[in-house]
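Sulfotransferase family protein
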Amino acid sequence: MNKVFIIGLPRTGTTSVSVALLEHGFKVAHIGLTKKAFEVADVVSDVPCFCDYPQLDKIFPGAKFIYIDRPIQPWINSIQMLLTKMAPNLADKTGTFHPILKRCFKQTFGDLSADDLLDEARLKQCYLSHQQAVYRYFADRDDLLTIKLNEPNSLHTLLRFIGVSDNVIADNNTTDFPVLNVGSHVASWGEYKHPNKVNTNLAGVEHRKFFDYQKLGLMG
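Structure:
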């Protein structure tokens, strides 16, 4: 099958979508930081997909992309909590998070040490800028689906978009996305056990190497 990339921002419901697709038989990586993870997974969500969709579009021809549109005010409240928790580990020199994760958050949210990092107007603009960039990139194309997780039949719409037959959807009896990572909880993916989960840092013959966008001519 063709790859599927979930390109909604963090705290829009990427974990809920990822778990739902696990339950429909897909191999899913919630965050992919190695070439091997991308090669093995059917679906990759969150980092780095919400930043690197133009590069992934070129590396994986025929891929389909899912943009999750969450109401802005609840998203702002949630991302403020996440950034507060993550900020120390996102610092350029002292943060312990993976360089790709740091890059994606910096690309999306700007200076992560800024005094106004959590400002509502600033975060709203970050959300809208990402959304507008996605819609510009995929204008006049049919390989992007926008979903709102709380709308009726959004899961079935997604499944049909990525090629799951109506018979299989009916047999599964699942009509809604699971509600995960509510409030201040951020670890639902790690806690969820499933044989189709793909390790974020899965190693292959090139160990934990990621795609070299510069070598592939995919910078800018």
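The radius of gyration is 17 Å.
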